[in-house]
Write a structure and sequence with these properties.
Elements (H helix, E strand, L loop, with lengths): L2 E3 L2 E7 L8 H14 L3 E6 L6 H16 L9 E7 L31 E2 L7 H10 L4 H11 L6 H18 L27 H14 L2 E2 L13 H43 L4 E7 L1 H12 L9 E7 L33 E5 L4 H11 L18 H4 L6 E3 L14 E5 L20 H11 L5
Parallel strand pairs: 2-4, 3-4, 3-7, 5-6, 7-8, 8-9, 9-11, 10-11
Antiparallel strand pairs: 1-2
Length: 452
């Protein structure tokens, strides 16, 4: 049975890490669309999350905003929430939701004043969650947890941590990387930061410095030598953040698999069952990558496309994913080049300069350590869509409910939401501050739900 948002159904469909669908949920969706004669389906995918209940709570809140907006009575709207395995670290509160417990790590920092970072060690809940999410990397995770607890870390500890991270990444790599960076070596199974040519201490110091810049006080941190400001102790905190970024990099890649192998074929099935059904895709964070790669998984030859709009909220994937050619390598193209033509409407890229997760830590996770390229589109090939928008795309400011946008079929448009998406704690900032009527209105206008 579906959930409900007001008087509208909310069906939940679940996928595993390989994109295989829970057929029970899929069957309920098909039966429900038929029974209710739905004309317009709004399909939302979460990013990193704690569990199914948190995902459903997000969908209730976000679709709840949309449900209050003006739409025409002839549109029979249904909602779909996608659930896929992308567990969030236990020390990170989810934006717009109360955390299950008060966070104690870096994510507990207040926006305006520095606070201690906590221990660099992995707590038991986080370790258990990571092993459940990445079972193929359980051995490496256990060893990394031991190393992060070192009271007197030395260079050997740091180097082994670095090597364990690379082994973990290769063991858990799902494929479907964005080929970021000038040489595209992310397709090897690990991000450029873990290249064997890089110095482990330098990589981890980069993350430690980013923590301090974002408002985390490592000089007064808990745990081992770091409590007295020991340099290698600070490097351990950087190593923990590098591991966090690495698990996000893997979940980003997994999102592409879920979109291409799971959600895209489901949309194709719905189109076969209901040729006139209009489908509109919405994704937050890695969920933006899920819905974008669903375009690749659509059956060929659907003209016009049943996908009428795509709305990306703080998308945690490459700004160059749709680029053709890539500006830093004219012989290559983005992983989604040409796929916007599979949308019979606009692809809206909503971004915010207050997104610390994507503006600061995403580039660190993607780039080669030691590369000090600027954050602007033209200078840094490791920028994230949710931080600066899509590359070489027309841009407008986020507008109010009732306002129009210059949308065009098959075209991307950047929407700067920096005046609205502002709330969030360091070091990750406003990444999850997406439950706003003005953002829901983007989806309404893109889907033409206000038009007879």
């Amino acid at each position: 049975m579906p959930e409900f948002v007001g008087d509208k159904p909310l069906w939940i469909v679940s996928f595993d890490k390989d994109g295989d669908i829970d057929q029970v949920g899929a069957n309920e969706l098909v039966a429900g669309v038929r029974q209710r004669e739905v004309t317009d389906l709004m399909v939302f995918s979460h990013g990193w999350n704690n569990d199914r209940s948190k995902a459903v709570d997000l969908y209730q809140r976000w679709f709840g905003k949309l449900d209050t907006l003006p739409t025409v009575a002839t549109r029979r709207i249904g909602y779909v929430g996608v659930v896929w395995p992308s567990e969030r670290w236990s020390d990170e509160p989810i934006g717009d939701f109360a955390p299950a417990a008060a966070p104690t790590g870096a994510a507990a920092a207040d926006r305006r004043e520095a606070v201690p970072a906590g221990s660099p060690a992995l707590d038991a809940d986080t370790l258990q969650m990571l092993k459940a999410t990445f079972p193929d990397g359980a051995q490496q995770l256990d060893r990394m947890a031991e190393l992060l607890e070192s009271e007197e870390p030395d260079r050997g500890t740091i180097d082994e941590l670095f090597g364990q991270m690379r082994e973990f990444s290769i063991a858990t790599f799902p494929g479907n990387a964005d080929s970021e960076g000038p040489d595209g070596n992310a397709d090897a199974g690990f991000p450029p930061m873990l290249s064997a040519e890089n110095d482990a201490s330098k990589v981890f110091r980069d993350f430690a410095m980013e923590l301090m810049r974002s408002g985390v006080d490592l000089d007064s941190a808990e745990g081992g030598a770091a409590g007295i400001g020991d340099v290698l102790g600070k490097v351990l905190h950087g190593a923990k953040e590098a591991l966090r970024a690495l698990t996000y990099w893997q979940m980003k890649n997994r999102a592409g698999v879920v979109g291409e192998k799971g959600l895209g074929p489901l949309l194709g099935q719905l189109n076969r069952e209901f040729p006139s059904l209009r489908m509109n895709l919405i994704g937050h964070s890695f969920g933006a990558r899920v819905v974008s790669y669903a375009l690749t998984g659509l059956p060929d030859g659907l003209v016009p496309s049943p996908v009428k709009s795509v709305t990306l909220l703080q998308g945690a994937f490459s700004s160059f994913a749709f680029a053709d050619p890539l500006p830093f390598d004219r012989n290559r193209r983005g992983g989604l080049a040409g796929r916007s033509s599979r949308v019979d409407g606009p692809v809206s890229v909503c971004f915010s300069s207050h997104d610390g997760a994507l503006g600061n830590f995403y580039p660190l996770a993607s780039k080669v350590a030691g590369d000090n390229a600027a954050g602007a589109h033209g200078d840094n090939p490791w920028t994230a869509m949710g931080a600066v928008g899509a590359f070489d795309v027309a841009q407008v400011e986020l507008r109010g409910v009732g306002d129009d946008y210059p949308f065009a079929a098959g075209e991307l448009i950047n929407i700067d939401a920096s005046d609205t998406v502002v709330n969030g704690k360091p070091p990750f900032g406003a990444h999850s501050d997406i439950v706003h009527e003005s953002l829901a209105w983007v989806a309404v206008k893109a889907a033409e739900l206000d038009t007879p």
